[in-house]
Design a protein that fits this description.
This protein is α+β, with helices and mostly antiparallel strands. About 55% of the residues lie in helices and about 10% in strands.
């Protein structure tokens, strides 16, 4: 029972704060469905292989921050950390302790720690003609052929292939619109693409109004095109639209984070547009921090790259006051659809206020903030338990 001293200070609310309620519930379901295999302990923490769309290697580690236990994780899934696979691994370890069977130590021959350090792998691209005496350079051969054709013939060839291949047709259409500066037409196409993709649950076939595939690559490409064109306001408008559509879509998503990863990449472009916009620093911070607070799926994690570059003390002070007021009116007994307390969201909001106070050079107000929270929620253990020794064990 190697890590029991760390685990006895971690509650369900701590786990909700760590990954969000939905990821926590999905991780619990993965554990209950017996998808955690080859659980072992190592010097760094708990290691396991978790089945899903693929078999993912997950490591959960335990550290201390100012004397308090801190969870962290690494995984080979698209999330890379704080995922349902990490939760499933943690629950499997807790269950083994409950059964009186501590997980075995890792073997020297176990490849999984090395695999975690390698990161994502690229598929090997091989020329099927390599080594053949008849091999040629296909692109060179094609270039020679096209150069010999007339303009009218080239138009006919391209039009024919565009008719047969929807992806090529869309790419050509996008190129023509950006060359002509038709930003509104591009924005309209992006909205239709987002609506089409998010109108289906993960695993169903998707199709847009113009026949695109079920992924966000075209959305990302055209958001980038609009950014390069300087249409920042349009990109922000589309970012708001994507955020509104993405949340209910992700709620039905069970593709091990692939959709989350794609949407997050699109939103990153929107956050960059906000950085380059004419908004005040206060308006930028308010939008980005609210987006992160409402996000239970790590869709907006890239917003921190913009947030951390804003060092305007006056704006951070206004942000602290805004969220402090929001905290005062946040329900004390609110629960999600499963009846579970949303205290973790209140904790998240309190920590947001504390961080804003620190950035506003008002650190002397943080202790008062947490004392007020402890009195309001009657949860002294959450903020002061490690100092008073009153923290209770996990209640799973």
């Amino acid at each position: 029972m190697k890590f029991i001293n760390h685990l006895q200070h971690i509650s369900w609310s701590d786990l909700e704060s760590w990954v969000g309620s939905r990821v926590l519930q999905r991780g619990e379901n993965y554990f209950k469905n017996d998808l955690v295999k080859d659980l072992v302990t190592c010097a760094e923490g708990i290691l396991a292989t978790v089945s899903g769309t693929d078999a993912y290697i997950t490591l959960v580690t335990f550290t201390e921050n100012a004397g308090e236990p801190k969870l962290s994780s690494r995984c080979t899934c698209p999330y890379r950390s704080r995922c349902k696979h990490a939760i499933a691994t943690l629950f499997a370890y807790l269950d083994s302790i409950k059964q009186g069977n501590d997980a075995p130590e890792i073997k020297l021959s176990d490849f999984r720690l090395r695999r975690l350090k390698e990161g994502p792998r690229q598929d090997d691209l091989e020329d099927e003609f390599e080594g053949s005496p008849f091999s040629t350079d296909p692109l060179s051969e094609l270039t020679v052929f096209l150069k010999a054709e007339s303009k009218e013939s080239l138009i006919e060839i391209i039009t024919q292939f565009a008719t047969q291949h929807p992806e090529l047709r869309l790419d050509l259409l996008d190129r023509s619109r950006i060359e002509a500066g038709k930003t509104r037409e591009i924005a309209s196409s992006i909205r239709k693409e987002i609506t089409s993709i998010t109108s289906f649950s993960t695993g169903q076939s998707h199709g847009s109004d113009e026949g695109s595939q079920a992924n966000f690559s075209r959305v990302k490409k055209n958001l980038t095109n609009l950014m390069n064109f300087g249409a920042h306001d349009l990109v922000i408008e589309l970012t708001l639209f994507l955020l509104k559509r993405a949340i209910p879509y992700i709620e039905t998503d069970d593709d091990d984070g692939d959709s989350v990863s794609q949407i997050s990449s699109c939103l990153k472009i929107g956050f960059l547009a906000i950085k380059k916009s004419n908004w005040s620093n206060y308006e930028k911070l308010l939008f980005l921090l609210n987006a992160q607070f409402e996000d239970d799926y790590q869709l907006c994690r890239k917003a921190s790259e913009v947030i951390d570059r804003i060092n305007d003390v006056a704006s951070w002070s206004k942000v602290a006051d805004y969220f402090h007021e929001k905290l005062k009116h946040f329900p004390l007994n609110e629960a999600n659809e499963n009846g579970r307390s949303l205290f973790y969201k209140r904790d998240q909001l309190a920590h947001l206020v504390a961080d804003a106070l620190k950035r506003a050079h008002r650190s002397d107000e943080i202790l008062t903030l947490y004392e007020s929270e402890a009195k309001a929620t009657h949860r002294w253990d959450i903020h002061f338990g490690m100092k008073t020794g009153s923290t209770s064990g996990p209640t799973f």
